[in-house]
Write a structure and sequence with these properties.
Blueprint: E1 6-14, E2 18-23, E3 29-34, E4 37-42, E5 47-48, E6 65-73, E7 78-85, E8 90-96, E9 101-108, E10 118-123, E11 127-128, E12 134-140, E13 144-150, E14 156-163, E15 170-175, E16 182-186, E17 192-195, E18 202-206, E19 216-218, E20 224-228, E21 232-237, E22 243-248, E23 260-263, E24 268-272, E25 277-282, E26 288-293, E27 303-305, E28 309-315, E29 323-331, H1 334-337, H2 371-390, H3 395-403, E30 406-409, E31 412-415, H4 420-428, E32 435-436
Parallel strand pairs: 6-11
Antiparallel strand pairs: 1-29, 2-3, 3-4, 4-5, 6-7, 7-8, 8-9, 10-12, 12-13, 13-14, 15-16, 16-17, 17-18, 19-20, 20-21, 21-22, 23-24, 24-25, 25-26, 27-28, 27-32, 28-29, 30-31
Helix pairs in contact: 2-3
């Protein structure tokens, strides 16, 4: 099995520079947003998905999309694509599985109806469990940070909207996957803010960050971030802003913001270049593992990790020419798939008992109407315990019966756990990796947008 990424498919349809790529939950869809509007492909067929009508108008900020993100509600199996425009519109598209197309769910115009480009967008959770709501944050060119909640029924509500000081010009916003607070990374100045997720109040300031942060990716555990700092990609510890690693990107041909992403459980970093390729770095050694070639130049690249494979998508962002999206794949050996583990969070980084949002654990529950079934099991367990003291000679038979007793619940045969292995399987469940989404590309600078 290859240890390198191999080309999987090429997706066509974008007619101009792509600014933002995003994978949906479980990589069902991939979207490309930019100067030609939006394209979405179903990755099971590589076919384009029908979308609401949008004009092709690269010179009209209303139809130029600068940011994108996905959420998925497990409760009703609902995929929603969130888009931010150069004019400042927040747009939500809802996928209708019955007609296999997207429809407009919301379109929130910019405040005061003035142009206010959405520079960056992030979500707290992409794959949302029943009973939970989604959380979305966006940063605009006017230094405004806004947070919304989104329910599985489609209700989109603003939590707060706050204006930052004049000396803070946000370029990237990221939600902490543990506390839900918002980290604000400016393009220049090096002052990183942490905002309260409920009120938007500033909880902390760190003024000794990188002088330039063209693009920023946050690790799964929110304890590290990697940023493009002008010539290189650098890995920092978020709590202390200590430089941990430097990934050489070479001398840039043009001074635009190179995009960057984590991948493979934060073991690799994928960085864009202006030389027609993306570079994959090994985090521990800083070594370049592979170059992913793109024939047209400029790149945008998010990553996603699935239970059985890794995916990387790259796309061109050169103005006034078509831009294909190229998907690369690396299969995970079966023995590695079964041994994937949670990232480690030390007390130095974050002190919390809450698991990273990068993993979704699927357990089980006991239906109230069926509790008498479980009561029978409890009685049998008590009898086994009593028998241990009164009839020790009969203990093996009693335990054998209790450990292998089966009960029919709603047409399903349930067997009580009888080994450490099956108990671990019951409480561990399954996990899915989430998506990292980046924006930028040659000739495209989404802070003060311009085209080469």
């Amino acid at each position: 099995m290859s240890s390198h990424y191999e080309p999987l498919t090429t997706l066509s349809g974008a007619r101009d520079a792509i600014v933002s790529l995003a994978f949906s939950a479980k990589a069902k869809f991939v979207s490309a947003a930019g100067y030609s509007g939006v394209c979405v492909w179903d990755l099971s067929t590589s076919a384009p998905t029908p979308l609401p009508h949008m004009l092709f108008a690269p010179q009209n900020p209303k139809y130029v999309m600068t940011s994108s993100a996905w959420v998925y509600f497990q409760k009703n199996k609902r995929h929603i694509l969130l888009l931010g425009s150069m004019r400042g519109d927040m747009i939500l598209w809802d996928y209708r599985s019955d007609i296999k197309s997207f429809q407009v769910l919301y379109r929130v115009p910019p405040m005061e109806n003035t142009t206010d480009e959405i520079l960056s967008m992030d979500v707290y959770e992409q794959d949302i469990s029943p009973g939970r709501v989604g959380r979305v944050v966006a940063a605009t060119a006017s230094r405004r940070i806004t947070v919304w909640t989104l329910s599985s029924s489609g209700e989109f509500s603003q939590v707060f909207s706050t204006m930052l000081d004049e000396n803070i010009n946000p370029k990237t916003v990221r939600m902490c996957k543990i506390t839900r607070d918002i980290f604000v990374f400016p393009f220049y100045g090096g002052e990183i803010l942490c905002l309260d997720y409920k009120t938007g109040a500033i909880k902390s300031r760190k003024s000794h960050g990188p002088a330039m942060m063209g693009s920023v990716a946050l690790s799964n555990t929110s304890n590290k971030f990697v940023a493009y700092t002008g010539k290189n990609f650098q890995l920092y510890r978020l709590t202390t802003l200590e430089v941990l690693k430097t990934f050489s990107a070479g001398t840039p041909v043009v001074m635009f913001s190179k995009t960057v992403a984590f991948g493979e459980s934060d073991n690799i970093v994928v960085g864009g270049t202006d030389r027609g390729c993306a570079l994959i770095y090994e985090v521990n050694t800083e070594e370049i593992l592979q170059a992913l070639n793109y024939p047209r130049g400029g790149l945008v690249q998010p990553t996603i990790t699935l239970p059985d494979r890794h995916l990387v998508a790259i796309a061109g962002s050169t103005a006034q020419q078509p831009a294909e999206v190229i998907l690369f794949e690396k299969l995970i050996p079966p023995e590695e798939t079964s041994s994937l583990s949670l990232p480690t969070v030390t007390h130095r980084d974050v002190i919390t008992a809450h698991p990273p949002a990068d993993f979704i654990f699927v357990g089980f529950y006991l239906p109230k109407k069926k509790t008498w079934y479980w009561a029978i099991l409890s009685v049998l367990a008590v009898l086994a315990f009593i028998g241990y003291h009164i009839f020790p000679q009969h203990l093996p038979q009693v335990c054998l019966f209790c450990c292998h007793s089966e009960i029919n619940i709603d047409g399903r045969w349930c067997r009580s756990p009888h080994s450490i292995e099956t108990r671990n399987q019951t409480i561990t469940g399954t996990r899915f990796r989430k998506v990292w989404v980046l924006t930028g590309g040659p000739g495209i600078f989404t802070g003060q947008t311009w085209i080469m």
